[in-house]
């Protein structure tokens, strides 16, 4: 018979198989090549959502997904999927992935290891001629970071029904560009509906906090994600000359803002809870050295694993803002632009990750995530859990973000075991 005989694919059995491991060199080459896209001088990446570098990253993923034999789909939110057939093709797929948009001058690992790790798993199963019962679907979600277009996790948010498409398309960046128009501009406004019915979802991600590193654990078995609130605040005072204007006659929006910034730090310290609060971005107008600030717009990010703590913090911040406005006699506005509830992940998926870490022989610890992830939303529609790998010194969202490659490989092998087990369960 001409040509090489096509060997039937071996079905990966239900039990975990520690001999099945990814190819760390192939994975590392791909990771380095991918992070040449939008590379910064200080070894970070600059691939903000729907930017030209984000488009280049997406184009590369589509090419690599197709090369790996995946059926590629881009949906109406620009989420990029790659799907294999299972031996039972109509079964809901095991979905796993993360995001490739980055912070401005962000880290090389955040999101990327979850998407490229997922692709490496597909390559490994192809190479080992292994087919799972359920289809496997890898995904790169759009706009996870929320730095250019708030709120964050827009792609997974529409996919899970948290946001409607029109709301997402109308979100604008600081220059007034609409999300929907930018998606069109880069050619990623797909036809497929942003919706799905996955059997379960896993996400491999860097911890972005210090605990795995401190405890010398290579794997975090993630049991849930903090809830959080993103607030937009605005003070409006009176612009005037910085010289002749007497201090007692001023209505200085910056002074009111400064009181709230220190107030956020004070209230997070006072609660004795896991509450964290950040004033991360600020816009001053007219922003001139010798003009009393007329308006200041700033953001407040409040998080806790206890939803009641976030609710209470939002109410206290509102009181701080009202007090600061009264004291400086300026006008104020406060808008909550996003509220995500903390909720625990699926017990069975958590235990699958724990078993997978054991199978791989990786020291692991259970934890919750202070960072938000697309898994927050997937957890509303299907059983979900996450796998963390250590961030050296807990640093993330900066160019100094770093994870030892051996830990990335261990985390990916844990994901491989978890995905295969779930893809073969009845
Ligand atoms: O804000 C977050 O935690 C995530 O990085 N978007
Ligand atoms: Mn991330
Ligand atoms: Mn991030």
In summary, what is this structure?
With 426 residues, this protein is α/β, with parallel strands linked by helices. The chain has helices spanning 24-34, 52-67, 112-127, 154-159, 165-170, 179-185, 211-214, 253-270, 307-328, 347-360, 374-378, 405-423; strands at residues 10-11, 71-74, 80-83, 94-99, 130-131, 136-141, 200-206, 219-225, 227-236, 276-278, 282-285, 295-304, 331-340, 343-344, 364-369, 384-389.
Topology:
Layout: E1 10-11, H1 24-34, H2 52-67, E2 71-74, E3 80-83, E4 94-99, H3 112-127, E5 130-131, E6 136-141, H4 154-159, H5 165-170, H6 179-185, E7 200-206, H7 211-214, E8 219-225, E9 227-236, H8 253-270, E10 276-278, E11 282-285, E12 295-304, H9 307-328, E13 331-340, E14 343-344, H10 347-360, E15 364-369, H11 374-378, E16 384-389, H12 405-423
Parallel strand pairs: 1-5, 4-6, 4-7, 7-16, 8-15
Antiparallel strand pairs: 2-3, 3-6, 8-14, 8-16, 9-12, 9-13, 10-12, 11-12
Helix pairs in contact: 1-3, 3-12, 8-9, 10-12
Bound molecules: (2S)-amino(hydroxy)ethanoic acid (HGY) and manganese (II) ion (2 copies).
């Amino acid at each position: 018979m001409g040509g090489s005989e096509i060997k039937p694919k071996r079905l990966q059995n239900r039990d975990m198989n520690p001999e099945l491991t990814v190819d760390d060199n192939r994975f590392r080459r791909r990771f380095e090549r991918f992070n040449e896209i939008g590379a910064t001088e200080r070894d970070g990446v600059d691939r903000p959502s729907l930017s030209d570098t984000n488009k280049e990253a997406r184009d590369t993923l589509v090419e690599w997904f197709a090369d790996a034999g995946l059926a590629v789909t881009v949906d109406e939110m620009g989420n990029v999927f790659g799907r294999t057939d299972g031996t039972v093709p109509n079964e809901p797929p095991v979905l796993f992935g993360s995001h490739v948009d980055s912070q401005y001058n962000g880290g090389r690992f955040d999101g990327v290891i979850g998407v490229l790790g997922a692709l490496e798993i597909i390559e490994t199963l192809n190479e080992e001629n292994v087919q799972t019962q359920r289809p496997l679907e890898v995904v790169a979600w759009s706009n996870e970071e929320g730095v250019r277009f708030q709120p964050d996790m827009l792609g997974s948010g529409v996919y899970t029904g948290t946001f409607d498409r029109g709301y997402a398309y109308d979100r604008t960046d600081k220059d007034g560009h609409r999300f929907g128009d930018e998606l069109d501009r880069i050619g990623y406004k797909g036809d497929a509906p942003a919706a799905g019915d996955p059997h379960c979802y896993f996400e491999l991600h860097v911890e972005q906090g210090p605990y795995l590193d401190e405890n010398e654990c290579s794997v975090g078995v993630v049991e849930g994600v903090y809830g959080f609130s993103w607030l937009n605040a605005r003070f409006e005072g009176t612009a005037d000359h910085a010289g002749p204007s007497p201090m007692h006659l001023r209505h200085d929006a910056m002074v009111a803002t400064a009181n709230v910034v220190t107030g956020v730090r004070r209230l997070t310290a006072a609660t004795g809870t896991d509450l964290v609060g950040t004033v991360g971005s600020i816009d001053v107008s007219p922003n001139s050295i010798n003009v009393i600030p007329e308006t200041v717009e700033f953001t407040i990010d409040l998080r806790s694993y206890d939803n009641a703590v976030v609710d209470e913090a939002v109410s206290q911040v509102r009181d701080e803002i009202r007090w600061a406005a009264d004291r400086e006699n300026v006008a104020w506005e406060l808008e909550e632009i996003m509220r995500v509830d903390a909720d625990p992940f699926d017990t069975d998926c958590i235990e699958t990750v724990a078993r997978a870490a054991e199978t791989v022989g990786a020291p692991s610890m259970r934890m919750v995530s202070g960072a938000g992830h697309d898994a927050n939303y997937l957890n509303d529609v299907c059983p979900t859990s996450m796998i963390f790998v250590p961030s050296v010194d807990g640093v993330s969202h900066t160019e100094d973000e770093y994870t030892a490659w051996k830990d990335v490989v261990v985390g990916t092998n844990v994901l491989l075991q978890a995905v295969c087990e779930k893809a073969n369960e009845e």
